[in-house]
Amino acid sequence: MNDVAQIAPVITIDGPTASGKGTVASLIAQALGWSTLDSGAIYRLTALAVLNHQVPPDDALAVAQIAEHLDVSFHVNGVTLEGQEVSSLIRQEHVGNLASRLAPNPALRAALLARQRAFRRLPGLVADGRDMGTIVFPDADLKIFLVADVLARAERRYKQLIDKGISANLEDLLADMRERDRRDIDRSVAPLVAAQGAHTIDSSKLTIDQTVQTILSLYRT
């Protein structure tokens, strides 16, 4: 890591799926004039590439090679994978579920670590995911662990999908979310856990703006 990267401030926001991490991270970055890292998108992109290339998900080395050579470009309007716009594709539930299954792969995580740390540059970075504060940026200036009741999260995800015109079943989403939480918490590699020194915020009954303002206040003080 170069000297500039070392002094660039970082705010990490970790938490379970659909806790609002991405939206909150984007709004905080906008308020501070910083860049963002959606680490979940990188894992989803890997999952989509695995599907596209018909790589067996249980082939750890093959999956890691896919990640290492991921042809990805992030731009203002979304993200492309191997030249194809995939912003909506990577948000589909089956892609997210596969990403969760692939995430414990140590070789995959190692392949993606340097790619994630490269996002750290001035004036600053807001990074959201599962292990941003524990593994990727352990020296972050502020670490947030954003949680919410699983039913509230399932209802949020249901509304997101319906608003996008994607059919969804709340009970299925709730079951999938509980299973994904279990996988994320129980995995032996980089499990979902609050980083040392992290501030835990329960957003179940908070608006997005209230959550954002709480985190900005913590950073500024």
From TrEMBL:
Key word Nucleotide-binding present: yes
Organism superkingdom: Bacteria
Gene3D superfamilies recorded: P-loop containing nucleotide triphosphate hydrolases
Keywords: ATP-binding, Cytoplasm, Kinase, Nucleotide-binding, Transferase
GO CC annotation terms, alphabetical: cytoplasm
Main enzyme class: transferase
Positions bound to ATP: 15-23
Name the record gives this protein: Cytidylate kinase
GO molecular function: ATP binding; CMP kinase activity; dCMP kinase activity
Alphabetized Pfam families for the sequence: Cytidylate_kin (PF02224)
Subcellular location: Cytoplasm
